[in-house]
Amino acid sequence: MATWIALLRAVNVGGTGKLPMSELKAMCEELGLAAVRTYIASGNVVFSSRKSEAAIKSAIEKRLADYAGKPVGVLVRSAEEMAQVAAKNPFPGLAPNRTLALFLDRAPPADTLATIRNQKDEKIQLGKREIYIHYGDGMAQSKLLVPASKIGTARNMNTVAVLAKMAAEL
Predict the structure, then answer these.
(1) What pLDDT does 133 receive?
(2) What distances in angstroms separate CA 2 from CA 23, 25, 170, one per listed residue?
(3) Where are the domains of the chain?
(4) Smaller CB count within 10 Å for the chain: N or C?
(5) Which residues fall within 8 angstroms of residue 65, CB to CB, at 6 or more apart?
């Protein structure tokens, strides 16, 4: 049985998509996912399953749409992939709480860097299925616009490290 991490998009952030983690855990268990654990209220779930990434994504998205009455995006990574995201952070010496991995379903579009707007002191690097962003002065002051963020979900490197650790321990 493989270990997976599901990252929900736009859950319990900015007053949108309210979802108690106890509900999310119960939904995942109803779908047959095993050893389900959540981490913080932003929609992070670690679990085991024999299903494929695509099957897991589809099942969780369908269940969440039934619950919320609207689509909720889900990005899925294996335990190994999450560990790689943490290990391949191109900004290891910079503040992990100001460095994000923007998770995508597929490789960043070829024009990703060209479509970014309002870049000031932020550093950006493309990953395999992620976009790494370091916010120099912090996110609160940033006006950075990354069009690919509309189809992904971001986690800071502290969260990525915890999720990788949780998955490795499962």
Answers:
(1) 98
(2) 23, 18, 10
(3) 2-79, 81-169
(4) N
(5) 71, 72
Mean pLDDT of the region 108-116: 95
CATH for 81-169 (3.30.70, 3.10.180, 2.40.30, 1.10.150):
3.30.70
Contacts 24+ apart (CB under 8 A), 81-86: 81/129, 82/5, 82/160, 82/163, 82/164, 82/167, 83/164, 83/167, 83/168, 84/128, 85/127, 85/130, 85/160, 85/164, 86/157, 86/160, 86/161, 86/164
**Helices of type H across 15-156:** 21-30, 53-68, 79-87, 112-115
Is 134 strand, coil or helix?
Answer: strand
Cα(51)–Cα(38) distance, rounded to whole angstroms?
A: 19
Homologous superfamily of 2-79: SP0830-like domains (3.30.70.1280)
- Indicate if 81-169 has the same CATH topology as 2-79: yes
